Amino acid sequence: MMLSSVQVFFTAVIVMFSFTQASPLVSSIHSRDADAANDTLATASIKTFAYTKQAIINTLALSNGTSTLPEPTGLSLKYATIGRGVQNYTCVNSTAQAIPVAIGALAVLYDITAQVLLDPANISSMVDTAANMPASTFILRNMPLDIPAVGTYPVIGEHFFQADATPTFDLFVVGKRAFCKLTTKINAPETSSMGIDGTGSVAWLSLAAEAPSVGIAQVYRVLTAGGNAPPTCAGQAANISILYSAAYHFYA
Ligand SMILES: *[C@@H]1O[C@H](CO)[C@@H](O)[C@H](O)[C@H]1NC(C)=O
Ligand SMILES: *[C@@H]1O[C@H](CO)[C@@H](O)[C@H](O)[C@H]1NC(C)=O
Ligand SMILES: *[C@@H]1O[C@H](CO)[C@@H](O)[C@H](O)[C@H]1NC(C)=O
Ligand SMILES: *[C@@H]1O[C@H](CO)[C@@H](O)[C@H](O)[C@H]1NC(C)=O
Ligand SMILES: *[C@@H]1O[C@H](CO)[C@@H](O)[C@H](O)[C@H]1NC(C)=O
Ligand SMILES: *[C@@H]1O[C@H](CO)[C@@H](O)[C@H](O)[C@H]1NC(C)=O
């Protein structure tokens, strides 16, 4: 089911509002830097073995089976997140002769760093579960992501993008920002989820954070579920918002 523009507009207004006025709820949630979380895990000996940074990097999906995104050489995982939102497209008319054109995206980012450090192999299944949660749970900027029977993950920030501008990640809870440039793009694996709107999954990306980014050097978008445009504009409105989820990982 696609979000109506009224719904998306409304949630976008909430996003803009909350953006200027950080909610006490969100501000009070202490989000974990991967290094800090690791210290906690090591001290508490929650697991009898410790994942190394390289093991975590190796476990994060970077390959679609035939192509692989470049590894984050010399960098450490800082934040592992799940993003949920919309990819926006426009149609010049509603015929099959017109093809949707990408105009931007908007997503809320949830912090799963601690979970990833405990069990990096499970991210894929978490993202998949989150991707298939009801449409009404997308772009809820003011509440955590509750994955039934798995855990509750706080908002850490948001992602926004306009096709003619810079992909931006604002991790406002931890005061980090990334203004990005695409470096590598590979198709989502053929076995990827079709997404809630049934259109298939957007590509996997490696993005370089550029000045004036703060505390982030590289961003990955992987394990995508949904977000592709419909194949043509047949029967579509002028503005289309397609629901999607993805794992976004931040390195520095
Ligand atoms: C976690 O800490 C251990 C022990 O200090 C270290 O060997 C390991 O590389 C660290 N892992 C990460 C992900 O930082
Ligand atoms: C719809 O747009 C397409 C692509 O620009 C064009 O080829 C086609 O003639 C248009 N159809 C109508 C009915 O306007
Ligand atoms: C996405 O589309 C919705 C309307 O459907 C709009 O409110 C939002 O601003 C758009 N965002 C971007 C980045 O295009
Ligand atoms: C992994 O995630 C799935 C679905 O999100 C969940 O059912 C399962 O309990 C998780 N496993 C672990 C070990 O966290
Ligand atoms: C992986 O991505 C490449 C580049 O986009 C594409 O050519 C290839 O078909 C993809 N492989 C699979 C298995 O989807
Ligand atoms: C589509 O979105 C643009 C802005 O992105 C807006 O100017 C236009 O009014 C929208 N059209 C409709 C039919 O909602």
Number of domains: 1
**Number of DSSP E strands:** 10
Which residues form runs of ≥5 with pLDDT under 50? 6-32, 38-51
Q: Give helix % range.
A: 10-25%
Organism: Calycina marina
Keywords: Signal
Protein name: Malate dehydrogenase
Structural descriptors:
6 helices; eight-stranded antiparallel beta barrel; DUF3455; 35% strand; 21% helix; globular; binds 2-acetamido-2-deoxy-beta-D-glucopyranose; signal; 252 residues; alpha+beta; single chain; two-stranded antiparallel sheet
Q: Could you write a compact summary of the structure shown?
A:
The chain has 252 residues and is of the alpha+beta class. Helices cover 21% and strands 35% of the residues.
Q: How would you portray this structure in words?
A:
By secondary structure, the protein is of the alpha+beta class. The protein has one domain. Helices cover about 20% and strands about 35% of the residues. The strands form 2 sheets. The protein has an 8-stranded antiparallel barrel. A two-stranded antiparallel sheet has the order 3-4. A hairpin with a 3-residue loop joins β3 (about 145) and β4. The longest helix is centred in the N-terminal third of the chain and has 16 residues, at about 5-20. The termini are far apart. One 2-acetamido-2-deoxy-beta-D-glucopyranose binds near residues 103 and 106. Keywords: Signal. It holds the Pfam family DUF3455. This is Malate dehydrogenase.
